[in-house]
Design goal:
By secondary structure, the protein is of the alpha+beta class. The chain has a domain of about 90 residues. It has 6 helices and 9 strands; from the N terminus they run H-H-H-E-E-H-H-E-E-E-E-E-E-E-H. The strands form 2 sheets. It has a 6-stranded antiparallel beta sheet, covered by helices on one side. Strands 2-1-9 form a 3-stranded mixed beta sheet, with no helix packed on it. The mean pLDDT is about 90.
């Protein structure tokens, strides 16, 4: 629905809009709204392979093979890019909408709306736990329960916002610590194992940055 609204208001496709207003100004040159067969062939070995590691020997996850990737832009799932590019996005939000080169990408008011709690203490019917939300991001909800999925580790501040990919990745910004993080694994071990390893790695990240 959001993609449809953007297209009707802007008069351009959702992919073109994001490319022009976000990816290009942030120099996110290795992020693509969709990776079709032709682009997948050009990227070759640069296109990472995701593995099913629930059992050994591990095998490539069919859903992420080039011939199974999306043929059209899906706002919630078709984007591909580097972790370094994701850090550029979250760093821009930490700078109140300004890129590393000093170009304003978003207004301060828009950043505030995107990163301030909009839903507070509501039951998330997908995950079955109480979680907080901002517009498009999960905001840290550890105050409700340490079992909240897709969290940012015990050391994250209550202002931390971001989003996790299913069993494989996470990107977030912690305003209190001035920290932007993007983390990608290349194996999907199942939700419980992924949640444990994510918390361990993020604990090490916070320890490393002091």
């Amino acid at each position: 629905m959001l993609g449809e609204v953007v297209e009707r208001v802007s008069g351009s496709s959702f992919g073109s809009f994001v490319q022009s207003f976000v990816l290009d100004p942030l120099r996110m040159g290795n992020t693509y709204p969709v990776v079709g067969p032709d682009l997948a062939e050009r990227l070759g070995p640069r296109l990472a392979v995701m593995h099913n590691t629930r059992r050994q020997p591990m095998t490539p996850y069919p859903q992420y093979l080039p011939d199974q990737l999306a043929r059209f832009v899906r706002p919630g799932s078709s984007f591909h890019g580097l972790a370094h590019d994701v850090v550029k996005l979250y760093s821009m939000l930490l700078r109140n909408g300004v890129s590393a080169e000093g170009e304003r990408i978003l207004s301060g008011e828009t950043v505030r709306m995107l990163t301030t709690r909009q839903h507070d203490g509501l039951l998330d019917e997908t995950f079955g736990v109480v979680m907080d939300r901002v517009l498009g991001f999960f905001i840290d909800s550890q105050r409700h329960s340490p079992a909240v999925p897709y969290g940012y580790g015990r050391a994250a501040s209550h202002l931390t916002f971001g989003h996790g990919g299913k069993e494989l990745s996470i990107g977030f910004a912690d305003p209190e610590h001035g920290l932007a993080v993007a983390l990608v694994f290349n194996g999907m071990p199942g939700e419980p194992k992924h949640d444990r390893r994510l918390k361990q790695v993020l604990g090490a990240v916070y320890e490393a940055v002091g």
